[in-house]
Design a protein that fits this description.
- Helices cover 17% and strands 34% of the residues.
- By secondary structure, it is α+β, with helices and mostly antiparallel strands.
């Protein structure tokens, strides 16, 4: 900025007085100046010298005249433009306020109503420009200024002017046009003929960030972000913020569709959907693809489980309180990008109403272990912010918050997006294998082989069940609160090397009297509203025994419900909601799956009995006759299968493998993600290999 300022001051002497630099972006530097003729403050944006040299003054100024004619209450207009001794500049009103980027940096998320209102007003400005044939091409929070709470879209048409004037010479400067977090996939691919739907996508990214706190796709480099735009689907915003209305979520998901043809054709239609409480959008997603004509119409292709297949997945079993109600069992298959991590502790929890689960998953080399939230009515899980290196979690009794051990301490976080609050600081030694949230306002946890508790608001912890001097080999594990703060179930197990799960005993603590008594032989137990204690035996069998809350006694014989729960010396993975939904992590015996057709009525049919393997991410061809799928042998690679019993073709054929195939519209090729020579990228290959 210091190199340009003297040149600009000399070139504009007598017209504008340069006061101070305001900022610098990828294409230009901005200065605060005074318009001497009209005695007013203005902002002067000067193109980078290398960019100006590549474009040429006459062509740029000819193109910018079109954008200077835009008139709209939410468009930041242009006062002037020119070529000052080779410095291409344009003059805009100076806005006394801040940019949307500044506000998001400070607040992270905006109130839902305000975010939607800003998006609607920006959409109005964009529509006015589109009606004149002007596409912005660089919608982002930094280009939306807030003056008295009203948004003003800046740099209108500047990107178009640069592109039209500079042509192919733009790439020679080494500068990129657009911002990866908000750039549409077609613009990222270098399509010079982008239309209004590109601005729809960018505005969708901005609104998503206002609501969720970050853009729909993030990454450490521009290449990673752009690759995710071409391979992933955005996490529905309600998973990160339940207050987002369904019509707003639907409008966002449609605006963020990868293909322009699947988005709103006009930005005004996007705004109309945001204002329509009845608007809904299902989208296609990548986990269940609709079959084409002639193939199980109305069914979905999934990587299903048959009687002979086991998998490392979360399985939910609906416990019926009425013998006439059938028990439903189903599997939640988690994508390989967020696998469940079986670290010490209980790595899966379910909300009291059974609508969501939280589990420990892997967020990649950068993020490592962290907590993920998956709602039962959504296909895609979302990361819970600020939960790196957490050891499982428990829901609050009302389901609005979670508590989790992290770095030796204990934290509580709202699922609405607020930062977590520390209940116990580092060094408190909260044991990862024992935590429960009681309705009496306490968090009970295992620490130093004893049972402790601390108020949910924070404070001094206190011992509830101290070490028994007559049982120096015992340790308290896996506490679970009873309703109304009546008591706590926990297990007493051996401590130290050579521990034997068979010797683990379920104990109940009466929090009123302090009395405790043994109940059952088992590893971990939990009460359900049907009047039962559900517990897991050392061999991974789930059992239920009738239990009386008044006397705190088991009143009948246990009954086995399921087997195959993952359990070990320092881990046991199951949880039960208040409505009787049981979720558990299955023990691993084999990870081979078998693709099946699944109808909306729950009917399942195996596609090819001879086809099974370790595979993820099926993608149907446009005509529904073939499926591309990731198959793991030495590494994941893309294979194509002719349906229903046709041949199987390995496609990627490279030591780096390939992931997440997407079909070309004509079905003659697929694109897939691969990391080659240390760099991630998207590759395309003919479907016949």
């Amino acid at each position: 900025m210091a190199d340009i300022a003297p040149l600009l001051t000399a070139a504009l002497e007598g017209r504008y007085a340069i006061e101070s630099p305001l900022g610098e972006g990828g294409m230009a530097t901005v200065y605060l100046a005074r318009d001497l003729k009209h005695d007013r403050r203005v902002a002067i944006k000067v193109l980078k010298p290398e960019l100006a040299a590549a474009i040429g003054g006459e062509r740029f100024l000819a193109e910018i005249r079109t954008t200077a004619q835009l008139q709209h209450p939410h468009v930041l207009g242009l006062h002037d433009s020119g070529d000052a001794d080779g410095l291409l500049y344009f003059v805009m009103p100076w806005v006394e306020g801040e940019s949307l980027a500044d506000r998001l940096e400070r607040e992270k998320q905006l109130p839902v109503d305000e975010a939607v209102t800003i998006a609607e007003k920006v959409a109005g400005a964009l529509q006015a420009a589109h009606d004149r044939g002007v596409i912005h091409r660089d919608i982002k929070p930094a280009n939306i200024l807030l003056q008295g709470g009203e948004p003003l879209v800046a740099d209108f048409g500047i990107a178009l002017a640069v592109t039209s004037a500079g042509g192919n010479r733009l790439t020679e400067t080494g500068l990129s046009l657009g911002t990866p977090f908000y750039m549409s996939p077609e613009q990222a691919a270098g399509d010079g003929e982008v239309d209004a739907r590109s601005d729809v996508y960018a505005l969708g990214c901005v609104l998503y960030e206002m609501l969720v706190g970050e853009p729909p796709y993030t990454g450490g480099t521009a290449q990673v972000v752009l690759a995710r735009k071409l391979t992933d689907v955005p996490v529905p915003p309600t998973q990160a913020r339940a207050a987002v209305p369904l019509n707003v979520e639907g409008a966002l998901l449609k605006a963020l569709e990868r293909l322009p043809a699947d988005r709103f054709g006009r930005v005004a239609d996007f705004a109309r959907a945001l204002a329509d409480p009845g608007f809904r959008y299902g989208g296609t997603g990548e986990f269940a693809a609709t079959a084409g004509p002639g193939l199980w119409k109305g069914a979905a292709l999934v990587l299903g489980l048959t009687a002979v297949v086991a998998t490392s997945a979360l399985v939910a079993v609906l416990l019926s309180h009425d013998a006439s109600v059938p028990v439903a069992r189903y599997t939640l298959g988690l994508s390989s990008s967020d696998p469940v991590q079986t670290v010490a502790g209980s790595n899966v929890a379910i909300s009291p109403d059974g609508s969501a689960i939280v589990y420990v998953g892997f967020g990649g080399a950068q993020s490592g272990r962290q907590l993920w939230l998956r709602r039962r009515d959504q296909l895609v899980p979302s990361v819970i912010a600020n939960t790196r290196r957490a050891f499982g979690a428990v829901f609050s009794p009302d389901g609005s918050r979670i508590a989790f051990p992290q770095e030796g301490g204990l934290k509580v976080s709202s699922l609405g997006g607020a930062p977590p609050r520390e209940i116990l600081n580092e060094g408190s030694g909260v044991f990862s294998a024992g935590l429960t949230w009681s309705e009496d306002g306490y968090l009970y946890f295992s620490r130093q082989r004893e049972l402790w508790r601390v108020p949910e608001t924070g404070g001094e912890p206190e011992v509830v069940v101290p070490l028994d001097p007559d049982q120096d080999d015992a340790t308290v594990r896996w506490p679970k609160a009873l309703p109304d703060g009546r008591g706590v179930l926990f297990s007493m197990a051996e401590a130290g090397p050579g521990r034997d799960l068979e010797a683990s005993t379920i104990v109940v603590l009466d929090t009123e009297s302090g009395e405790r008594r043994p109940l059952l032989q088992g590893v971990r137990a939990q009460y359900v509203q049907s009047g039962h204690v559900v517990y897991v035996a050392p061999d991974g069998t789930l059992l239920a025994a009738p239990f009386d809350l008044g006397s705190l006694e088991v009143t009948g014989d246990p009954v086995a419900m399921a087997d195959g729960v993952r359990v070990g010396l320092d881990e046991v993975h199951f949880d039960v909601s208040a409505d009787g939904t049981l979720v558990y992590l299955a023990a691993v015996s084999d990870q081979r799956v078998r693709p099946v057709w699944a109808s909306r009525q729950g009917q399942v049919q195996v596609i090819d009995p001879d086809w099974s393997g370790r595979m993820t991410y099926p993608a149907l061809s446009p005509d529904g006759s073939r499926v591309a799928v990731d198959v793991l042998s030495e590494w994941f690679d893309v294979w194509i299968k002719e349906l229903d019993r046709g041949p199987l073709l390995r496609l990627a054929l490279h030591e780096a493998g390939g992931r997440r195939a997407v079909w070309a519209p004509g079905g003659d090729a697929v694109s897939f993600f691969s990391v080659r020579d240390g760099s991630p990228g998207v590759w395309t290959k003919r479907a016949d290999g």
